Amino acid sequence: MPTIITNGFQINLITLNNAFCKFLSSYGAFTVLSVLIINWFLLFDRFAISSRSARIRSLIALPSAIIFEKMPMGTNVTYICSTKSRRFLLFGALFYFPIVEGILPIVLTIFFWLLTRKQVRNLCNEQFVRRFDRQLTRVYLFQILANAIASVPYATIILYRSITFQTVRSPDKENIVEFFRLMAIWLFYVQYCTDFYIYITISKDVRVEVLKLLCSCPRLGFDHFTAAQSMYLPSSQSLKTASH
């Protein structure tokens, strides 16, 4: 969509402000890389399916090559995308989810908070240092609290489901576990948009700048659109000259 707007309507969204430039460029690089990886897997999949060699065809179902696959859930006809490897499930439950997505973000937040606080205390303006230090402390404390609230339920339910992977539960118990899992997933992914609201709620300076940015975006878009029209559409004076 940004490419269509930029090349089709001559409205370059990337040049509206620095935030658009960073987001669209980073998002574009990530999506292009993801599409390339997916296409490589698709090409290999087609090659393996059409091969006459049974050994190459067997690579499609190789658990170490493609870990996730379509699996039936329970006795009904519902399918889920999961893995049959119990080791991989335990690795994710014991290491990846609690450490990489739970403890590591909190540790990094505390680490950069201490570094930023140290840099702020080296400034000369004592009044600014005290005000900014209080504001910075509140922001980081709320971020740590949000990460902990979102990560602990998610890591707990993943660990429980991995340990009881082969346990047969009744439909009611399975529905309860699935309900808590969905709530934990929702809470876990909502945390990625909480930083913005923490900033604008706690910091008055950030709140003022956000309001200025929101008010200036329509005006900037209209100015770029007007400039593009003036570049590519003939003026009334040129039309009169051409008619004569």
UniProtKB/TrEMBL annotation:
The chain crosses the membrane at residues 24-44, 93-115, 136-160, 180-202. One of its GO terms (cellular component) is membrane. The keyword Heme does not apply. Residues 81-199 form the G-protein coupled receptors family 1 profile domain. Signal peptide: none annotated. InterPro entries: GPCR_Rhodpsn_7TM. Its main location: membrane. Keywords: Membrane, Transmembrane, Transmembrane helix. PROSITE patterns: G_PROTEIN_RECEP_F1_2. It is found in: Membrane. It comes from the Eukaryota. This is G-protein coupled receptors family 1 profile domain-containing protein. The lineage of its organism: Eukaryota, Metazoa, Spiralia, Gnathifera, Rotifera.
